[in-house]
Amino acid sequence: xxxxxxxxxxxxxxxxxxxxxxxxxxxxxxxxxxxxxxxxxxxxxxxxxxxxxxxxxxxxxxxxxxxxxxxxxxxxxxxxxxxxxxxxxxxxxxxxxxxxxxxxxxxxxxxxxxxxxxxxxxxxxxxxxxxxxxxxxxxxxxxxxxxxxxxxxxxxxxxxxxxxxxxxxxxxxxxxxxxxxxxxxxxxxxxxxxxxxxxxxxxxxxxxxxxxxxxxxxxxxxxxxxxxxxxxxxxxxxxxxxxxxxxxxxxxxxxxxxxxxxxxxxxxxxxxxxxxxxxxxxxxxxxxxxxxxxxxxxxxxxxxxxxxxxxxxxxxxxxxxxxxxxxxxxxxxxxxxxxxxxxxxxxxxxxxxxxxxxxxxxxxxxxxxxxxxxxxxxxxxxxxxxxxxxxxxxxxxxxxxxxxxxxxxxxxxxxxxxxxxxxxxxxxxxxxxxxxxxxxxxxxxxxxxxxxxxxxxxxxxxxxxxxxxxxxxxxxxxxxxxxxxxxxxxxxxxxxxxx
Length: 499
Ligand SMILES: NC(=O)C1=CN([C@@H]2O[C@H](COP(=O)(O)OP(=O)(O)OC[C@H]3O[C@@H](n4cnc5c(N)ncnc54)[C@H](O)[C@@H]3O)[C@@H](O)[C@H]2O)[C@@H](O)CC1
Prior knowledge:
InterPro entries: Carbohydrate_kinase_pred_CS, CARKD, Nnr, Ribokinase-like, YjeF_N_dom, YjeF_N_dom_sf. Its EC number is 4.2.1.136, 5.1.99.6. With 499 residues, this protein is an alpha/beta fold. It has two domains: 197 residues, YjeF N-terminal domain (Rossmann fold), CATH 3.40.50; 270 residues, 3-Layer(aba) Sandwich (UDP-N-acetylmuramoyl-L-alanine:D-glutamate ligase), CATH 3.40.1190. The chain is 40% helix and 14% strand. The protein has 16 helices and 18 strands. The strands form two sheets. Strands 1-9-18-17-16-15-14-13-10-11-12 form an eleven-stranded mixed sheet. α14 runs parallel beside α16. The radius of gyration is 26 Å and the shape is elongated. The two termini are 21 Å apart. The structure holds ligand NAX. Ligand NAX binds next to α2 and α3.
């Protein structure tokens, strides 16, 4: 897991690195500019393009000036600098870079008049006006400049963060900052990059290392964690020699209704594909033929027997996929809750909870809830923005001792400890019915295999997204069935890389 930091902490890390590496601040800026330029060249190789580097007067502007110089050195001949010198204060490193640019007679025009900023279709704007130092909403000349950039047809590449974009905290409903096609951000992704509202400001982003002190970053207190591939590789266990089906647990999935049996089958199938030893499908009798035909590996569990069966033999129990809503389903949920064993609660089971909120207190600790936005709001009230929604999920996870998996392109996993783990995998090709049922099956599978609740959820969410990402490399749409089918290979690849 990687710590995600708020802007004040990032500033602190800059200072720490400068003092302890040690490195002078102007050299750190040079390193940042070089990292930006390398990533930029990788992506925008056209040396003939006209590049307008728009610079403010803080360190973000200082980066911009160094970037302009380095681009020129790398063969980009049509680089121009525009100085947005609208403030009283200037940073010392900005001034040093400005001096250097002037002294070196680098043939880079330095413009200050807005009229001179004639942005054309194939031009590139490098936005180095304001970065993570933003401390109030954009207004006046800054806002005017943002409008000019946004209404041009030029491509916009932002340095660290787009001008006017808040790196953390509630994002305003109306965004008046620079809209970037691409952001090259330094060292750590900013927390708000993972929030859906950032789409107004950022189309794509990449994070480049500038050599800030990583152990120090990890030592800082932060409730925000980014799930990393290293964490997954370290956590996941390969199949052991001499193991048998009993080694990988027995899962029980309570799901399906006459017309939504597909959801149950998707869940049960995903549970198998993710490696469970045994899975029993507690579905209505009307689904028995479908189950036997499509998933011969799965076992059938008669619903009539749920109340009087000892469920201890199941290492994991999930309820919800395609369950339907009604008195019978409510009774099923209540029966499971009374067994006092952690559950995974999804889909219709969440909707039943939102109609019977008094049941929330009955959910055993360490249970997992996997709502999408609408299910979450039905459960815990309407939220105007994602920041507030995630804050509420965190609060409820602590209060009810649950793991709340708030699903989105970047899923937020809120743990009872107060930590919020952001999952970086997943993509829009996966936006299709059944995907949630598959996720439920995968997490249930990992729970049954003996991972603890947090591990099972993090592994499940990450690998679900990872499988989707791999498939989306050469297809526009990824169906839930295709994703489930690809899981054994994704798992194999991870385990082979380790050995
Ligand atoms: N040593 C460092 O601190 C490093 C900083 N780096 C760069 O520095 C940036 C942060 O630099 P700074 O902290 O100087 O801040 P910025 O350059 O982002 O902003 C500078 C100034 O803008 C003012 N300001 C904030 N919001 C405003 C608004 N809405 N309207 C008008 N003025 C506003 C602030 O008062 C501040 O004086 C990062 O985003 C990154 O690009 C990198 O060079 C890496 C090293």
